[in-house]
From TrEMBL:
Name of this protein: Phospholipase
UniProt superkingdom: Bacteria
Lineage start: Bacteria, Pseudomonadati, Bacteroidota, Sphingobacteriia, Sphingobacteriales
Keywords (A to Z) from UniProt: Signal
Keyword Transport: no
Signal peptide: 1-20
Pfam family, one: Esterase
């Protein structure tokens, strides 16, 4: 099924003199995509479905959206493969690359048009789409339940943003287009902070490791068993909580904050006000269950540090009790 997604941005056009009239104009950005709906989609108008966003490689760019079905999930679907989830396969115009902002708007539109289970949105892509998958997941870490980047790579300095996102990476051992090291570097950077990272190398595969990957039946079982991460408060011994009380300083922002502890309650006091932080582990705290912002304590006594993961990472060192 072919679809066209239009994004409209209105703006005013000023003429060259003071008495000129303004005219209403319109900028249109179009994203073509292939859409697959499960066989039983129309049987129950109350049922919601998982969605997989598939990003193609550089060879499928252009104006003919049917080119997207040359590889990956769209190819399997064109060959008669049935899936229990919606598949959205957009196309990038010739000479362009994946833009995460455009994909975010596309997914927003998909969620409006179709019965989507927003706790089970998944992202995958191959080659250029593998890079696009890493990039989008790190830009919008709160969106996807899991990601499957194939023969791609990304910015290792940003992997902390997907510390709560399960990832299954695939790559060919004989890939001479995208070096195996590109995936290996991402996995090595992510594993210390994310226990849910899988890495499969197909030793005899070249650049086309996606055929092997998408024909791995256990991939879909793994994927569909995952729901989007949400923080959940857990009980923590009061003696542990008490050790976090004190003042902390960030020398980059020249900012000081204070942690106060009462029975079962931990507050972060800053110039802008007081925020209650809730534990989801003995040393890890969150503010809102759906907001990818958390605080992590490490070290002991005066050497204790507080790492805040927000729009970026902020390290605060303890300066007093």
């Amino acid at each position: 099924m072919k679809h066209l997604f239009s994004l409209f941005v209105a703006f005013s056009l000023l003429c060259g003199n003071a008495i000129a009239q303004q005219t209403q104009e319109k900028y249109t950005n179009e994203i073509k995509y292939l859409l697959y709906l499960p066989e039983n989609y129309n049987k129950d108008d109350q049922q919601k479905f998982p969605v997989v966003l598939f990003l193609h490689g550089s060879g499928e760019r252009g104006e003919d959206v049917n080119k997207v079905a040359v590889n990956g999930l769209p190819k399997l679907i064109a060959g008669g493969k049935k899936f229990p989830f919606i598949v959205v396969s957009p196309q990038v115009p010739e000479g362009e690359r994946w833009e995460s902002t455009d994909l975010f708007r596309l997914m927003k539109d998909i969620k409006k048009k179709y019965r989507v289970d927003e706790d089970r949105l998944y992202l995958t892509g191959l080659s250029m789409g593998g890079y696009g998958s890493w990039d989008m997941a790190m830009k919008y870490p709160q969106m996807f339940a899991a990601i499957i980047p194939i023969c791609g790579g990304g910015d290792v300095s940003k992997v902390w943003t997907i510390r709560h996102t399960p990832v299954w990476v695939f790559h060919g051992g004989k890939d001479n287009i995208v070096p195996l090291k590109q995936s290996q570097d991402m996995v090595d950077a992510l594993k210390p902070i994310n226990p849910d990272v899988k890495f499969t190398i197909f030793p005899e595969d070249g650049h086309d490791s996606w055929t092997s990957a998408y024909n791995t039946d256990s991939l879909y079982i793994w994927m569909l068993g995952i729901k989007k991460f949400k923080y959940s408060k857990v009980p923590v011994d009061q003696q542990i909580l008490d050790t976090y009380q004190g003042s902390y300083y960030n020398d980059f922002t020249n900012d000081t904050l204070k942690i106060t502890v009462a029975p079962g309650i931990v507050n972060m006091i800053r110039k802008k006000g007081v925020i209650e932080i809730k534990p989801y582990a003995n040393d890890k705290f969150f503010v809102n269950e759906n907001d990818p912002v958390d605080a992590v304590f490490s070290g002991k006594k005066k050497k204790m540090q507080l790492l805040i993961n927000a729009d970026r990472q902020y390290v605060y060192k303890r300066i007093s009790d």
